[in-house]
Amino acid sequence: MASSEIPSTPELRDSATLAEAVDIVREHYCPFIPVVDGSGKLTAVLDEDDLRLALAGRGRLHHSVSTLARPATSMPATPAAPQVTHALVMAGGRGERLRPLTDDTPKPLLPVGGSPLLLRVLGQLASAGVKQCFLSLHYLGDKVRSAVGDGASVGLDVAYLEETDPLGTAGALGLLPDSLRALDGGRLVVINGDILTNVNLTALFAWHERHGNRATVATHLWEVDVPFGLAHFQDQQLERLEEKPTLRLPVNAGVYVFDCDLLCEVPPGQRFDMVTWLNDLASRGLVGQFPIVEEWHDIGSLEAYHRLQPHALD
Q1: pLDDT at res. 258
Q2: 42 near 167, Cβ under 8 Å?
Q3: pTM higher than 0.85 for the full model?
């Protein structure tokens, strides 16, 4: 879906679950979802912000939409989605933990569900309205160039940024052309080339604008099963024991949106660390989070790669 399109929003029955709402926001740009009763009458509206933030906290997919929807007799106007036409995909990593698969194949070109991971990412960007995409290259960069070419096959104008020496997790931003780094009012989406997700990028762009962020970090809840009883203390006083809990931890999903004028803070041609920079921006109150409630997978190890193959996203 191009980001300028505003298709009609599917309705939710008042008996629906939050999982059904997630199905809608994954496929459609819809800041507001109508909730109707059995006769089809509008009774409430579910705000996408409330949905994403709830599921990033105590909300669960099996919960009813009635826990979040607000009573309403009419639908709020849906604003046009903003245009984000430039992207940077980080595609230069060595993929050490995926050896021997990456001995001769760059990590972003590993096939997932029969298609190279990078081509999936580029196709998603094009579908979200991105026109020009920069690929940062280092390890086996010639193979990436050969696979992607000028980007016409995926509907993008692709240009390449060569890191002769690794520039850290954000140094490639300093290689972007000055015309983009100084683009007044422009925005850039940055995505790691080794993640698999069906996140609605148009929703991400709209969230960035709606919340007035200068930078937005997409996050995803990572569940960690603790194999022991977890002790909760206040100083030396035991408050309670929690038997083998599952912790739900928000992690950096490797997808970002930046206002282009911030890119002037990145020194050209020098090592630059993304986490350090984002922490500095956050200390100035410039960064927001976008909770990914859609699927998200990191292809960071042989185990994760092989486990994902039978269940790759369509």
Answers
A1: 97
A2: no
A3: yes
